[in-house]
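Below is a typical protein record.
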Amino acid sequence: MVDVDAATRWVQAHVDSGFLPGAVLGVLTRDGVVAVEAFGDARPGDRYPIFSTTKPLVGMVAAQHFESGALSLDTEVRSVIPGFGGGRDDLVTLRHLGSHTCGIPDPDLDDPTPLDQALAAAGRSFVAGTACQYSSLAFQGIARMAEHAGGDPWEDQLAAMLARVGADGLTLDTADTPHVPRMNPDARVDWEAFCAARHPGAGATATMADMLAIAASLLKDDGALVPSATLAAMREPVSLGIPDFDQSVPARRSEWAFTWNLRRAMPGLAASDGFGHAGWDGCELWIHPEHDVAFALLTNVLGAEALGLDALTLASALTD
């Protein structure tokens, strides 16, 4: 049985210090939910913005079309989005979009430019596949490719996929949350503009029940979200060995797979089997198959990690 005491003490300490106004922590194993605990101003069923934890969910919407052959990691973006990148002359694939190796300059999340227009005009920062730089806008391309493959709007495909595991509370109605992110001078967003964008790279909100339903399916690898072989393909590292514009300290580098972040050799974390994603407001979703544990954290402080929220300590507490 997973010992959650150290993890709950970690969250409680951040709430007691005033760093976090509140949080919900959820932990499960393949046998079921171990703990769901709310702290501070949170209640266990509260809906939180999950920001970039939206990304692998949209990645799975596209990946569910791999088995039929309607899409593959090597599908060229221009074959689906003819105006992509303002006529870029390099070959950009779905794999590049989902691994932050596509070279798309990233506008702010509250930029008023419509996402399709921004995607068409983006140009490039580097030749696809030669470097790594984080891009939320790339997920507009993934969403459009999923629509091309599946025929339905990407939000409808997302809802249908998540309903298969009971995560039908997750929504892109981002304003429908009692926990609007707490902002600071270095991390701010025009909340109304952000909510209006319904951004496939950052725009979802979810409850802990939603997050744990997703985590349980992935930990069991039960094929309900995507087939087992597809999930394995999504977890193959892509960014290893290429320059990373976002992480200048090699020892601290994480790796990108297709829309999943991999924790394979992280200082301070003994476990090397983790795949998941974090959100800008401190949200976390991580699955550790070899340790038979998955966990989620919902909270709402923009730039939480940059302000000192060390999520590796939380992961270590649950995987030791």
In short: The first helix runs from residue 5 to 16. The domain at 5-319 is CATH 3.40.710.10 (Beta-lactamase). The first strand starts at residue 22 and ends at 29.
